[in-house]
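Attaching the record inline, Q. Sequence:
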Amino acid sequence: MKLRIAKRKMLSKWTWIVLNLVIYASASLKTDAIKAFIELTEFEYEDACSNTAEAEWAFVNTPSNETLLTWEKNLISYAAFKNVQKHEVVDNVSKDDTNDPVLQYKYDIVAKAGDALLTDKDYETLVHFTGTVELLKLSKSGGGVLSNYTRGDVEHSLSRNQNVENKHSLWTAWHQELNPLVTNFSTVLLLTHKAIEANGAKDSMEYWELLSGYNNGYSKIIYEWEKISNLHKKLVKFVSTNLSHKYKIAINETVPAYLLGSLQGNDWTTISVDAVPYPDITYNIKKNLWKKKLIGKSLYKAASAMSLKIFNQVPQADFWDKSHFNQQCPSKLINFCEEGIMRVSTCFEPTISNFLSAHKNIGKIVFNQMSAETIAVLNTANRYSALEEAVSELFGILATSPAWLKYIHVMDESTDSDQDSIVTLMITALSTLPRLAYYISADMWRINAIETNITNPVDLISSWWKYRQEYEGIISNGTEVPTFLSDEYITSNKPYLSKITGIILAFQFYEHLMETTEIRYDSILEKRIKADFIKMIQQRGDPNWMRSVDKFLDLVEISSDSLISFFSPLEDFIDELEGNYNYDTVANGETELEELEKKILSEVNKPITTTVAPITTNFIIAKESTDRQKSAINITLVNKQKGEGGDVRTIVSTNKSLESESSIHVPVKKLDSPSVLNLQASTTVPFDESLDINLNTEQEKKPRIDTSKAVWAVGAVLLAIIIICAVAIFGRQRCRKTPKNRRYV
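Structure, as predicted:
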């Protein structure tokens, strides 16, 4: 009896163990099946994403009605694909079937794919509006004060023109050409309500936080901004005082947007000579960028020298072979969704703004290359990464350090170190703080408009300038124009939260790497990059940027303390100068720079008949001699006078061969006039007329849901269970045949 009871106990014990093993194995197999299912989804995403990127690349470099239509069709087809993937995942996979946080995160990315979940009609409206505005921005203006001006022409004039009235008239005219689209924009902006519902969010804040991977992000960012705002106000006051002296006009601690040297007015480096103490140092930096011929591709090769020293990484050959360095600015960096492949379309001009942009773009490129094996394409397609933005901004911060500027011989070695520090700090401040304020004002303005259903164009424009004055210290000076229509993020309903977070996080990264927030004079190239920072970029299979930052750098929260500490010497400098600063300028600086530009362009584009020996120094600035031997390009500089000091340079080629990417030729393209719009600024374009376009193609139609992945995944689970059962049965039979004295040995 006792033996029978003991056998029953042993049987029940082994039955329990076997049952648990089967349950564990089943759960593990189910997780593996879900993982395989998601991986198949990622592979399909790569192909669809790559096709859309190619269409966008064609439009950016050869903008026309035809390339725009192709891009729109690809975007619509891509959105239809995302909807199919969402239904496949939701119908065949349960998020609760796995405890793996990475799989749960990827599940959410597929199931909550953003604006792509809008209805076909609503999504077509969104992408057509965005594309229409982009085509207008890349086209030549019609007439009047902007006759035959490109955006680049206007930006160039705003940065060089010394006449206030001319600046104001150019800036106003450019933005008024987009004014008829404000009515359409109000409709497009309110599509966010439908996107919120489709993605299961409660409001616009939660929705954009979802897309940025930052829970409660806006409340945290506003809290940090309150700590930064005092520094920003001091910068605005300092700049406004200098501009007041320069133009001899009254400015009351707010800056007229048209005096900031660009159409958007969120990057103030264009006015660095006017706004920075010791202007001769800043002027020499601008001059040396030309003298060192850091033009187009050479500028990006200089920036890649930094990534080589820091991360032992440079952009892949595909980037150099297929990027375009003689197009328009601002630069456009496009991710092709496979193996970290990216390309840039940019202009040749070596301004301080383009210098920083090149370094930040290289930062994004190497980030994507280093994380290509671990970052899901789902992140690239459906989310905005603050980690990517932070690495990019870190490159911008390092690019303006005295150590780097002297290393590439853009800053003179003989200058005073204290003055160097203040100048480079001010340039960094002019690059980061106005953009930070702009990004916050843009998101806060849109959130308010969405939540309160502002649809009246007059109210939209008025509230826009109210928010810009509150956060940025910028005013329209009586001419309220819709400058927000020049912003691709705003016209396409993209949030700026990841960029806001990225700027603040970049200064935390700087402190972590340099072990201080003091601006560095010792060479950053001699410091060994920390292994934990590399691991964070690679992310080791976890696409959630917040978890990676916490895990590898122990940064639990995004904090502005590092940023404030970094700029503290500049803040002290401004405080000490309160009321005692005498505005200074560089005599004949602009004229000298114009002459230098003409001279360098002539030298760079001169046909070469001799072979140039390869450069073998550590710091490589490619002269692109072989490319220039293939195509001799004649450059003609044409100055268009627009009132006092209003010269706008256009570069015209007499040679049709533009294959050489190293050329400094900027082709003057005859763009197709947008057929879907009436561009008269004085008229209102009805919504249906301006956005109605026939996109009824096979690509537009939603494909039927393919259940092959679901069948494969379920089949994999069933097959694995059968194998386990077979092994268990076979093992039991073998165990019975084994002699008793060996069975448990």
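The beta strands are 255-256, 332-335, 342-345, 474-475, 635-641, 647-653. The chain has 31 helices and six strands.

More tomorrow.
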